[in-house]
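Ticket #4471: structure output looks truncated?

Reporter: J.K.
Steps to reproduce: submitted the chain below (814 residues) through the standard prediction queue, then opened the result file.
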Amino acid sequence: MNSPLYPVGSNSISRRRFVRGCAAGAAALASTSILGCHGNGSASSGQSVQSGPASRTIPLTGWSFVDQKPIKSNPDAPTNTGPFGEGVIIPHSVVKLSWKDWDPATWEKVWTYYTNLSLPEDRKGLRFFLHFDGVMVGTTPTLNGHEFPKHLGGYLPSRYELTDYIRKGDANYLSVQVDSRWSNVPPEGAPIGPRRVDYLEVGGIYRDVRLHVVPTIYIRDVFAKPVKVLDSDRHIEVTCTIDAGTAAQKPLRIRSELLRDAKVVSRSEENVSIDKPGDSEVKLTLSNLGNIALWHVDSPNLYQVVTTLLVDGKPVHDYTTRIGLRDARFELEGFFLNGKRLQIFGLNRHEVFPYVGYAMPARVMRHDAHILRHDFNCNMVRCSHYPQHEAFLDACDELGLMVWEEVPGWGYLGDDAWKELLVRDVHDMIIRDRNHPSIIIWGTRANESANDPPLYTRTKALAKSLDDSRPSSGSMTSGTRRNYKKGWDEDVFAFDDYHANPDGTVGITGPADDIPYMLSEAVGQFDYTKRKGFGIRYRRNGDIALLQLQAIRHAQAHSTAAKNKRICGVVAWCAFEYASLVNATDTIKTPGVSDVFRIPKLGATFYLTQTQGNAKPRIEPSFYWDFGPKTPRGPGKEAAIFSNCDRLEIFIDGKPHATLHPDKARYPHLRHAPFFVDLDLDGTGYPELRIDGYIKDKRALSRSFSSDPLKDKFYFAADDPELIADGSDATRLVFKVVDQFGADRALGTGEVRFEITGPGELVGDNPFDLAPAGGAAAVWIKTRPGEGGTITVKATHSALGSKSLTLKAHAYTA
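Returned output as attached by the reporter:
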């Protein structure tokens, strides 16, 4: 069976997706003229979505790509009459990059993607919408010679109705002009260019593209807002936006259902009257919820809301979204989740990755959420400083990771046109993401920007009109904090606190008066007033003594803030290193507790051990066990060890060295305070370290560390054993130099070469020089479209030998 609709150049898998998914839509077409296929905007994985009797989204993954503007031509020919171009799969970066040394000039051009849409001959009662999840930074589609208006903005969706410009037959040529030049749009616009924004924005269609095929009258959006969640009369207010291309000729009815495990929990229905084209809103209430399970960081219970449009009693179109019921409040006495105070414990996250910028698939985005929640034990993440991939937010919903989401921006406010785009972005961000239970606060101000009462009065009011269930905020610096009462009007005061106490410890400023208060950033590269070496602090191949302090400074920030119950908590700066031209070396800025490859540095040892209880014992020294040229006396006199054990026993070459207890005197407000030990030693003979951890006088864990580099090994592992052969799915391959017991070796070196057999492609540098990365790095392996099978990757270190691993790529089946 051939699909009537797929992009030319895409693989057969995409065709099978559509064939498999549209049977219901085809059957519906036979029953009424306004029935068709639908995409509800909830798909973030690049796969077809099936939510009900007539709901379909077609991913457009396969494109041709040329690095030039399209040439104007007659409407009966492809928009670009030059070479067909390179075949590419979305998500896509317009330039191939290394992991460092990025140059914005390489992508700041106008680029072209194009494809051919083959559509069904009978289109009666159907409408076609082209939907982009994210394009950096300007989008101008052209279909059959008709150029649509340009959309400026890189982090939120753009959408175009194609219905009136589709021709009969198979020749429907679609080109997309991607303008990746510096533009007058948040966060850009400043005359000095990319050095004005503390993150680089690589051009390309870097998120999913979809074709939505819908009935003439369809459900465009649903907001399912939980109300009075903690009361016995809790309910869900469902607001449905119906888009009508024409007046309804038959009776309409709309039905909304709350489901858990495919079982209906609550249902509501209303008649709908549509007597003219345009948008209309219908409100329904889902009640009698009883003992519904609430969403919590420790129990992220989720439900589906399925809203269906019926004609003459027959379902013609539906919209599915996922929600969770929770009560999240910022109060003077702290943050409360479902009525109980919860200390916010989090990190900021940038979405940029090595090699491809933002153009990673859903699996990789979701993995970041897993790192933050399960490895780093965070209960909150701030999406700095732009709305992030929906797959990441989906994972936050599922994992119980609370989210601060904010409008694109970084310290700069532009002209009136720029500000109008910022207001638009607030609208589009909230419309896209307001059903995510993980989001507990909206950032309606550009990060660290000056007070602008007219602008931010508008953005706050707009946010409240679209979603009055969440507070608004925006991060403030010391300069704007001094005068905040004159020009600040938000629900939560969020402060970026970067200062040191006189004794050199991390300083935490007390809360503002009579306002809920939190720290939206802290620690970072630490005391920003001390400029020397600022750009390379905490770099893995940098100052080892400074690397050893990073985790301590994060511990100081969280413990000091938790002492004051008026402070809701700390979202520290930051989780992962990122590409930047601001105070960076080799375009890599290094305040992350993990490097750009998402591999934990010593700074992560604090987060790795802050578990609830100690059921899973951890021992994480915040030092390298090394006696090389940069550390001839080892870790030093007050070496920190983070652990969730009750007691640690230290052995040097098998001999007892020290008994340690957590330093609760200096760190009284942490789940698990650090341990400190004198390890200023003569390293002659390469001594061995052993740390035994005890819980209630029973040894729960033992870790050993070798200082002998001649016994070092090569580590090579993948995050995922299986992938989907859609051409975009990918997984990370981590490689590093470790000691004989598997602990990271300080300043590891060597060249690593990769050999790939089977249906996979390497994303990354090959060969890879480990020295600039400090001995640990990663590449990604991605699938080929439509090619299932076994992928084998062999990695060979120039001195430590080879390791191989295998992955399974699964092809789609009809």
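Triage note (M.O.): checked the attachment and the full token line is present. Residues 544-563 form the longest helix (20 residues).
Status: closed, working as intended.
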